[in-house]
Amino acid sequence: MKKLTLALYHRLTGPLSAAGVILGALFWAAALTPSLIPRDGLLQGAIGGLCFAVGYALAVAVSALWAWLGLPVLPKPLLKPIRVLSVVGAAGIMLVAAFKADGWQDEVRLALDMQPNGGSWPFILLAVGLLLIVVLMLVGRFFAALRDFFGAPLRWVLPHRAAVLVASALAAWIFWAIGNGFLLDALLRGLDSSYRAVDALIPPEEAQPADPLKAGSAASLVDWEDLGRQGRLRVLSLPTPAEITAISGREAMAPLQIYVGLNSAETPQERADLALAELKRTGAFDRKLLVIATPTGTGWVDPAAMLPLEVMTGGDVASVSVQYSYLPSWLTLFVDPIYGEETAEAVFDTVYGHWRSLPRDRRPRLFLFGLSLGSLNSDLATDAYALLGDPFEGALWAGPPFASRTWNQVTATRAKGSPAWLPQPRTPAVFRFFNAGDRSELAAPGWGPVKIAYLQYPSDAITFFETGMWRREPDWMKAPRGSGVSPALTWYPGITFIQLAFDMMTATTVPKGRGHVYTARDYAAGWHALIQPENFGDAEMLKLDQWTEEKGL
How far apart are CA 159 and CA 143, in angstroms? Predict the structure, then answer.
């Protein structure tokens, strides 16, 4: 321990890297330039500080490799003045970028139809950024001290270069084990516990429904308390038969909204079996349409998505959703992109298996729905080869995350010349893409027996983040760019990767119709094209759009 303390002292009191502070400052400046989602000074400072640390670490690593290879270095008398000049130059770069950052963020707001910030927060940005830089540099120097600690005895038995290499590998392994094991595990346990507590809250206005056809009612197989907050909101959501009639002008019925919470049963298969039993109890298979609606990470089913469908069908529709997590989709995407696949697959196989056993002329039309992580898991739950003989009719997948299997395949093989944010599939009989500004593919003839529509906004970071963008510019950033994407957005190696990672966390903080905030108007267009409802034309669509706008959807 004494040797480790001594190594740490030498590292903490050691000089700064001249190349490190310059490259770090350049990374800082690039990190503050426009991305997809506007940010405040606090978050910008965190991103800037993180990127500075990445640039600094990269320069230090290259310098260490240079020395390890025994290549010539600058004479010692030149090092001190160069370090002073580099610190002064880096400070200048960082100050200029900090004071320009607010204007850069206003360019993002302009692209998203948001008001300018109207204020300036360079001092908040600098304070947060510098604090994070100090913390991360201390962590880096502790890594170097740990490497020195391991390297000292290794030099007695190994050549110098081999000792440094082995010591670096040992230090890296320890850091990875601590960060990916203990710290990350503790963070996830804490977050899961917090979200579980929030999910269990039952606000006073959420009374148990009296209608026996409602999930969680006294007649239901699912306990009201076990539905979770998102499940209770889903069960009590609009529309009522009277509201449907006011739009369609025809008599309507109450849609069935079946929901099974994470606490309703122990295993994914048990929850899927419970969902099927509840569907049978409520007569869901006697409705004209049945939708397997896979929720987001928190268990949320967007009412803006389901309400238009329920209105178009006159309420003659049943939907079923089974919760698989408490965590937000963006967090799950960072940790385990296919989290929830087991539940989604169990629900689909169970419901689809029963649906398939019914006579074709006496069973509902079957559709799938998913938003965000729900879209990814809905896709993963299906097996195209198993469905060839008796497929479901269609799917509406909104805001598909970047890890989505089918979405990636269809986008990658799109027709030449079509943009990545609105691809023209090579198989338009099955796949169609649309957004708020362009629904032309939906209206085109040629739909086949299976219809899958992707709703995606060009400014949605959850959809357009790419793991490979640290080393290459993604196609969606190339001209022409989609609506909501700032023309000032510039790709920088490594930096844009970090920017978009943070944009995923804040993708729902923008106005409706931008980022990851999908509107009922766009959902309605997708459902209308998929189900082609009878007696629900342009006049009814206009009423529906006006009504959902009034409801804030």
Answer: 21
